[in-house]
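Subject: for your reference before the review

Hello V.,

The reviewers asked for a structural picture of the protein, and I figured it would be easier to keep everything in one thread rather than splitting it across files. Below is the amino acid sequence we used in the manuscript, unchanged from the supplementary table.
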Amino acid sequence: MADRSTEIRWLEQLTSIPSVPGREEGVMEWVRRWVGRRADLTAKTDRSGNLLITQKGRKQAAPVIAVAHTDHPGFVVIAREGREVTAEFRGGVRPQYFEGARVEFLDAAGRAHRHRLDDYAPEQAIGRLRVPAASPLAVGDIGRWALPATRRTASGLLQAPACDDLAGVAAALSALDRARGEAARRHFGVLLTRAEEVGFVGAIGAARDGTLPPESRVLSIECSRAFADSPIGGGPVVRVGDASSVFHHDLTNRVADAVKATGIRHQRKLMAGGSCEATAFLAYGYSTTGLCLPLGNYHNMGNLDQVERGQGPARIAREEVSLDDYAGLVDLLGVATTAVDGDWDLVARLDARFERERYVLG
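And here is what came back from the structure prediction:
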């Protein structure tokens, strides 16, 4: 089992890999190498290109599956005519952030080429730029914002080009690495999905096609925009719902109750700023709850609160999460793996309370 420093190194590596909806190969290749070094794990790709990682050996309980997505908002080259390159932007970023933005495209050999956007049409999500005639950029190449490298800050933050949701991927794999070798947690696995940023279509595909057994309990992991009542550094969040749905109440309560008993610093919040993959799995009949890391500079939008109020300039920035929150999420996942099969029973608790206090009714 890896130590905490190794888990953070995985976090740093994954959050540095360029990945765009539909073009998540870099992350998937990293994960396949990671799985390949562990003989007791197996990886299977489903019809939508999602990657399901499970432990070998007999299971003692129905599957518990941590789900995280492998993409982040970014560009895909869709046309080139001479020096003119046209790129589609996939993901949700406000139009103000595209004006004159510095971008970094990667050619087929993985070499980075930095340019400035000439214009952006938000209605079509299309950006255009001019490149040198000898530039190797071609249709299918991917791009992202030109940002400094991943780093740790003195205040305990990780700042990276893409925490959402590659920090979730790192946490899920770290928790799985800890579970290996424990017969009681052999039912724990990880599903890594694609194209979440364009409407969680990879997760929908997995739910529709039955990638997971119907009896699976799903722990949907996200990096969600931090707010004043869900701050960075306040601990990982047991998420009771999103903008579209309220998650499975019994599963959420079991996880929250078990985590509270351990003393792991955490938060319990709705996190209704957007919708996530948990909604898809719920809609298709899976028992699902959510876990997340509070995220700064959501989708690389620095000064977002001020921009929404019309009070500040739009600037592209690295996303950021708390390293303590990340460590807590790994710990929380470990607790959740067995908590879903615990003896927590709300009806029994309410019955006991009624019997104890019914005398006041007369």
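For the response letter, the relevant points are probably these. The chain has two domains: 4-72+151-346, 74-145. Residues 171 and 330 are 5 Å apart (CA to CA).

Happy to draft the paragraph if you're swamped.

O.
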